[in-house]
Amino acid sequence: MNNFHYFGLFLDTETKNRLMDMLTDNIDYNIALGVADKIFIDHCTLLHVSQLHGNSEIYNYLNNRLEEKVQIVINGIGISDKAMAFRVDEHSVVCVNDIPHITIATFRGGKPVESNYITHWKAFGPIVIDVKLKKV
Question: Whole-model pTM above 0.85?
Fold first, then answer.
């Protein structure tokens, strides 16, 4: 059961590029991307191995749906001093995180986990995207 890092909903290259274009068309987000240490826009983590305790039902649910293609809704964007992320509508995913999200970029040595600590979100979208459930 612990032979994985996380379950995630992964974006294909075309979707990543579409979302990046939306960001670069907006001056505020484009400026933020200009100072980013690293750009991600590749997945929404649903269950990390560190979150297994007490979440065996979610583990089993996700494990039984590997490689399924699903649609999710992006409905916001948040920026902190360490990360920027798209907020994913919580009703469109089964996720252990309080606020499901897709990390866009990190700043000032931040790591993708910093997206979990974003507190200020601005409405963005809604944008419906296709993703695939994987276990890595």
Answer: yes
